Amino acid sequence: MAKTLRTSSDYTIKTGTGASGSNSVIFDSKTTRVKGDLVVDGTNTVVDTASLTIEDPIIILSRNNSTPSDVDSGILVNRGAANNAAFYWNEGDDTFKAVTTSSDGTGTSIADTALAKIQAGEPAAASDVATKNYVDASAGSFTLNVAGDDSTAITVGSGQILQFVGGANISTAGSEPDTITIDLGQNLTNIESISSATSNANLTLASNGTGDVVINDTLTFSAAATTPSASAVTKIYNKTAGGGGTGLYFINSNISSGTEGELISKKKATALAIALG
Questions:
Q1: pTM surpassing 0.70?
Q2: 268 within domain boundaries
Q3: 3-class secondary-structure state, position 141
Q4: Final residue of a domain: which of 132, 157, 182?
Q5: DSSP-derived secondary structure letter, 18
Q6: Torsions phi, psi of 34, nearest 5?
Q7: Which of 13, 62, 149, 158 is the most buried (most CB within 10 A)?
C-alpha cells in the first residue's frame, strides 16, 4: 500500500561517506517523480532512456559561464566509431557551426574535423537562409548590361566574359583576385585638344626635374580677346600687329612697369637700324 514519509525539516539519505564515496542509492520503480525542483550537484549526469521529453521551451547551456571566456556550447551527437557530429556556437569565431568532430563532449571546446551539410527549405523571406538551388537559379537569371561612352548597351550573359579593351595609349590587364588594371601610356599621341576642367583655370605643362617643355612643330597663338593683366611672369599673346610688325606681344610686371610690348620682326628691326644710322 502507499506510504508517505513526512518531515518538518530537511531530509537526507546518505550512503557510506556520501558524494565522496562509492555507494549508490537506487530507485527501482516503474516511475520516479520529483514534485519540486531537482538540483543535481555533481560532475556528470547520465540519462539512459529510450525517449526524452523536456517541457522547458528554452534550454540554457554553459549556465555558469558569466564572462566571455573561450567556451564552445552546443549539441554533440555520438556516432560510435566515426567522428561525432556537432551543431554548436564557436566562441572563438563568433558563429554557429555544423561540423564533424573528434571531440567527445567532455571539454569546453569542439575540435572541428570537417564542416557538415545543413539542409533547409527554399527561402521565402529576405532574411531566410538561401539554398544552393535558390542561389543557382538566381545566378542563372542574372543579366548585366554594360554601356560605353556612346551609350550603346551590351548584354553580358551567363558564362560570357566581360573584356576591357584598351585604345590608343591605354592598356588593360587582368589579375587575380578580380582586378582589372588600366594604364595610360606615358607618350600621348592622337591628342587634338587639351583643356582645363575649371573655367578660367590655368593649364600647366611641366617637365620632370631640369627637363624642358619641347615643342617640335609650329606653335600657334590665337588672338587674345583682351590684354592680360601683368604679373611677375612673362605672358606671350597675339593681337593686331602694331609697330613691331609681328602682332606677338608680351607683358611682365617687372618689365617697363607692366606695360605690354610687341616683339619686333626682322624686317622692322633692319629698317629701324638703317633709320637710326
A1: no
A2: yes
A3: coil
A4: 157
A5: G
A6: -110, 115
A7: 62
Give the position of cell 556537432: 86
| DSSP label at residue 229 | P
Phi and psi of 196, rounded to 5°?
-80, 150
- pLDDT tens for 197-217 read 888 888 888 888 999 999 999
Cα→Cα distances 57→1, 53, 60, 88, Å: 37, 11, 10, 18
Range of the domain at 242: 235-275
CA distances from 112 to 29, 88, 97, 109, 115 (A): 42, 11, 9, 10, 7
Domain tally for the chain? 2
Give a yes or no: residue 81 inside a domain. no
Counting other chains too, the contacts that 103-111 makes at CB distance below 8 Å and 24 or more residues apart are 103/76, 104/76, 104/78, 105/76, 105/78, 108/70, 108/71, 108/72, 109/70, 109/71, 109/72, 110/72, 110/74, 110/76, 110/86
